[in-house]
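Write out this protein's structure.
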Amino acid sequence: MNFSDVIRKNVLEGFMYADLSTAKIVTTLVITFLIAVYIFWIYKVVSKSAFYFKSFNVSMAIISVVTAGIILAMQSSIVISLGMVGALSIVRFRTAIKDPMDLLFLFWSIGTGIICGAGLYKIAVILAVLVTVGILILDMFPVRIGSYLLIVNSDKKEMEDDIESAVKELSGAYKLKSKNITADGMDLILEIKAKNEKELVNRISGMQGITAVSVLAHDGEVKN
């Protein structure tokens, strides 16, 4: 027996058509679908996005079933396996993931399809429980809201001291980020950590010579 015969016996013959019964196929896809529905429900509950996209959630859940079907098909023949690898290698997904939590659920959905397609149903169920518990526990850890950017426009150049006095009084901390002085006035950008930014804005906007006051916030969080 030469090297080619060894390869043929151990690889090609090992990938001959697998005896996948209809019952096994249906069982695998049904279990995968049930876990996918669970992922769909968990995502809807824990999602903190301002806009909930049901189409994304539905697509993410059904990906599990599709992935399980692909894994079942790849078990049947090495030809199908290579064909799947070649087909998937040329696919490019252009949809941007805006929330890191969406990436977690997407990976969870794909992983569930792979695990169920391999027939490891217990692992998929245990994974679903652990991921849910992990999300709920870690979400309970408190965080502080990040800093604000206070933008002040004034038609008087000498207003800087009065503005900084008000900021120092009504904010926990502040830092000058930018100062622009022109012939018509002055523009200040301050990074602040105010507990009541509304009161601060009202105080500064009521000063003589202030033309505009803006507060910008971001979606990030600061660790305790």
